[in-house]
Specification:
disordered N terminus; Thiol Ester Dehydrase, Chain A; 133 residues; Acyl-CoA_thioesterase_PaaI; 48% strand; alpha+beta; 2 helices; seven-stranded antiparallel sheet
Amino acid sequence: MTNEPAHAFPLADFLEMVTGVTGPGVAMARLNAGPKHLNPHGTVHGAVLFAMADTAMGAATMNVLESKQLCASIDVQLRFCKPAFGGELVATTTVVQQGKRVIQLQGDIRDSGGSLIALASGSFAVIDRTREG
């Protein structure tokens, strides 16, 4: 696993989330869910799970782009399968189709025991850094 390029990512820092690329077009986001990640019912907040999936998708997308390109989420869908009550969670995503302007991804979030917490799918836009306007 290689870490993402060194740049400021305040949300990941706040969530104490670690991201990494695990293969071509494959990335992960991991965190140890504690009290600050829980909703009032004592389960990991859906927004935390969404942030994990979206972040892992962005890392997987950036891994297949050229250096002059960047990406942005177009659509991310998350289907919750089982509540998580804390502990280590890992989102893993894979590029399933790479077009010139849109990249399709799928993934999941699992707990440390391997139980499926959520399923994710998404589309990311490919943006040329040199293009203006």
